[in-house]
């Protein structure tokens, strides 16, 4: 089941990466449009690389996490339990930071055309539809 999901996710992200990078190469005469395609395209290519590396070392990663979990939970001393709580708190904060930063970036990126359109409308400037990417 996990292998099928991995292959599907890999294919979707890889298609997007290849498409956007090719679009950037086709439009090299307009640097702004090319960069608008290269930025998400290279990000997706890095995600494909990370997926491949993670899936390739998945067994070793799972065994390492399992050994660490057994080691931490088998320690019933007060100091060991405090360390476990501290590490869990740090991991939760880092996960929340990652989620919040991604959400804020996505929100700002998607609101920019709306804010610019509202500014044009309030200033009675000619309207222009602007999408985040011209793809």
TrEMBL record:
GO terms for molecular function: odorant binding; olfactory receptor activity. One of its GO terms (cellular component) is plasma membrane. Its main location: membrane. Keywords: Cell membrane, Membrane, Olfaction, Receptor, Sensory transduction, Transducer, Transmembrane, Transmembrane helix. The keyword Transmembrane applies. This is Or22c. One of its GO terms (biological process) is signal transduction. InterPro entries: 7tm6_olfct_rcpt. The gene is Or22c. It is a multi-pass membrane protein. The keyword Ribonucleoprotein does not apply. Pfam families: 7tm_6. It is found in: Cell membrane.
